[in-house]
Amino acid sequence: MSEKKTIQFNESLFNGGNNKTKKNTDKKHKKEKPKTLIKPNKLKKDLLEKIKKHQQQQKITNDKVIENSIEEKEKSDFHNDFVNSIEYLNKISNKNKTEKQKKHKKHKAKSLKHKPMKGGNDSLHSQIQPIQNDPFVSIDLPTDFDVKNVSGGPIIHLSDFTSTQTNIIPESETPIPITMEQPVIELKKDPGWGCLKGGKKPTYRTYHNKTLKTTPKPTITSSQPSRQQKLEELKKKHKKIRQKSKKTIKSKYNLGRSLKKGKMSILIKNNNTRRKIKKEHGLLKQKPLAEVKKYLYERNLLKIGSTAPNDIIRTLYEQSVLAGEINNFSNDISLHNFISKE
Hints:
Structural class: mainly alpha
């Protein structure tokens, strides 16, 4: 018998696509992917900077163009205003000139040219000679200056007066020369200094320093009497004498037992006894070393042939004397000193 395995499939499972019924399924919307951010890069940064610079330059150029146009407009307005104002001033000046000329002509027509007359009636017959050989000047007044008589009498004109006067002048008399004295103008001398450094003339400072005269100071000699001189000499001598200056010296004393130094300090109130102690202490310091060592050997306070320094030996001597007569009764030092003496 052949052993074969049979595999059976359900056909209904494979017929899934033949179903005519459609399920109402909601349409799914596709999600929009977010735009990827541009990553910063050196090239991109440089490009951005260049674009920004270009924008700024365009802004600056536009601003400059606007400013230039405004300035040109202001200049043109100012020029027009200035020209108009100058024209207006010229018109006013021309008008004033014409008015002045008219007034001057009228004044010339009305003005009188005559010389003052000296004296009373005799002056009317005085001889009038023209200066600089000019023709005779007529003194005819205009009609406005005619004098009217209040009482209704006859009117007297100056023209009749002058006509008679001019006929009387003799031809033989010479004209009187008039001399005008011109004022004498004195000019200041040119100064010896200038205002430029390194110029032809020196500056004021250098000129002043060079040309300044040194006047010697006057010596004042006062004739003092003999009594006053003696007083001054006495004052000088008195100044030379040195005056003694008093000094107050304050000294502090630490009383009681001191642990550091190993001493007992007592206050002696009497000044005399204190002075005596200080004096004797000073005498102890002045004693020679031989006497000091002899004193210590006798009281067995120091061994013979010890190598102790001199300062320590002296302090040992001073302290033993100040404390009282101290003796050392130890056998070692006394034996050593006795043997070394022999």
